[in-house]
């Protein structure tokens, strides 16, 4: 009890000193009074939104530090205190806390001998979090939002794949000097391009030669409790759970009136409770399928690109003066032979005469005539 009161007072003074003297990088928000998690998630979402609205590229990497709190060596804590300028008295106090620390394990035959603890911070200690962020602090510029850090949760942002790969290598080198290492299997990356076609690029990033998991469109990475990605679709677990409840009741051997009663009690209440999440999941799934089907069309985007190049037709795209909507919709597709005429559509049954003159031109190219 006395120990926690003592370190609690020290932690309060240390927090005030760190904030007032701006010792930590503005990118580090962990264990500080401000709501840094909300700020980082909002910043990351805004960065991705600006990428596809301003036709720019953004590359993001989410890094997972393996056993960060238990693997930080004690000399790294002391080095961080000396580097910050906290003073000799504070350094001696922390050294007294961690010097000679031991641990024992309870086994069937009793307690083991004392095991010296030379790395890791004390769990439940008010001072531990502050010492950790002082040691792991990555000096980055908050103006450009290149690094978003919340304790051991790291997010790197870059404008190009080469820049992000260099940031990943630098982060790996810095953490390796502290005795920490990144787990490539739990890391993820995202390359979002605002250029046409807007979407996710399948770019591979490496960590010690191991590839990071690239996020596809609709997939998300969990960053500070939030799902972040491009066109993220909510998980289908809510919808699947609701459907499973209904199917189990419908396939049960209960009497009809009992099934109705169970549906009212369990199925309908579950649907009502999660109706927004269920409908959002269904809408987003259908929207993604429509987008994929549209992108897969062989003529997708080509009409606008070809017409924009032609000097005689560029005014249709800029202002549309002296052009009816019907003409505007017709002329671009007609020039590229994308308008199905009555006589040229072999799959169309019925009247195959020309819409204008009424003659049957079969498969002749009316546009050139």
TrEMBL record:
**Gene Ontology BP term (one):** DNA biosynthetic process
Question: The organism sits in which domain of life?
Answer: Eukaryota
Annotated Reverse transcriptase domain residues:
11-224
| PANTHER family named in the record | REVERSE TRANSCRIPTASES
Q: What is this protein called?
A: Reverse transcriptase domain-containing protein
